[in-house]
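INTERNAL AUDIT FORM
Audit reference: QA-55
Scope: verify that the stored structure record matches its stored sequence.
Auditor: D.O.
Record contents follow.
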Amino acid sequence: MSNNLLADRINALEESATLAMSKKSRELAAQGHKVINLSVGEPDFKTPPHICEAAKKAIDDGFHAYTPVAGIPELRTAIAEKLQRENKLDWKAENVLVSTGAKHSLANIIEVLVKKGEEVIILGPYWVSYAEMVKLAEGKSVIVDGAFENDFKVTPEQLEAAITDKTKIVMYASPNNPTGSVYSEKELRAFAAIIAKHPNIFVLADEIYEYINFTKEGHFSIGSVPEIKDRVITVNGFSKGFAMTGWRVGFIAAAKWIVDAVDKLQGQVTSGTNSIAQKAAAVAFTNMDAPKMMLEAYHRRRDLVIGKLKEVPGFKVRIPDGAFYAFPDVSYYFGKSDGTTTIKNADELSLWLLEKAHVATVTGNAFGAPNCIRLSTATSDEKLVEAIDRIKAAVITLK
């Protein structure tokens, strides 16, 4: 079938770079190669037992029917109580809506808020799907890049300079994917002070990596700033902190009129999220041992990987404060060759490393940072050490 039979919105859409690289690595593995896949942002831990037990009970109890579009009451209540307790967000259950993953939540918000031609300021580097979601909503992405020297973080001055009369949303993730950078309370309050001066601008805060934060200060939610509380949409979920990627449960917390609008949209697209997964998620916050254990493991791996990457000639490395990624600047190798292939950019280096070293990474170009590549640290220490040893052995052949 020709692409001219497809809708323009689909032809304009880019394929997810992380999923594309994962597909390539599976193909190589199927050919018998021992591929180490560092391309996917997925915890390598199992879902905690108390969550699994709740799911089994829901199945045995016959909880098999459609659920309310916005989520089952006990899950919405549990999320609201968590947000009040941990994030100082004064929301009730009616301010929470459950979706099929945080990705779904983000897409829902952009669809209900962004009108054709309106601008969404995205603080870069940014997760691969942000700009594509804006594109689907017929909005315009305005990328504001955080400098490597500033831990990839955007300054308040940069944000203020990017605002126009068409700005509708400021969108960011902290901890960040792909960089692992964490915006401090001081930095986010500075952003909030700027947003407060523009009553028609909303903030879309992606907090999916909230529980993977290595800073002493810990996580801060911009939605707790009173002056802009009603214009902040907080998005989170259970995938990263509770190793529930396949369960597909995310949520938004926002003013009720926004929740109602998302309820209306979701009712026409997916209806309520999987009933069993919701019952499982409803008990997640009752036992926080697993998130704490995973945090310790990710912290150890962060230190291991950064130490190893610093041994790779030409790689520029900064220390991430959260999430489970390393994001080295690899531009030193642009223009260098192994005698057969000349590496022009991060896209080519990432593919070359997959073919030569059988290590799957993701080009930083997909995240708005064309000098970098992303490596996930969500795998065993042994695999991480071997992967970086392979990368080092490969790149030193480039002259």
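Auditor finding: record pair retrieved intact. DSSP finds 13 helices and twelve strands in the chain.
Action required: none
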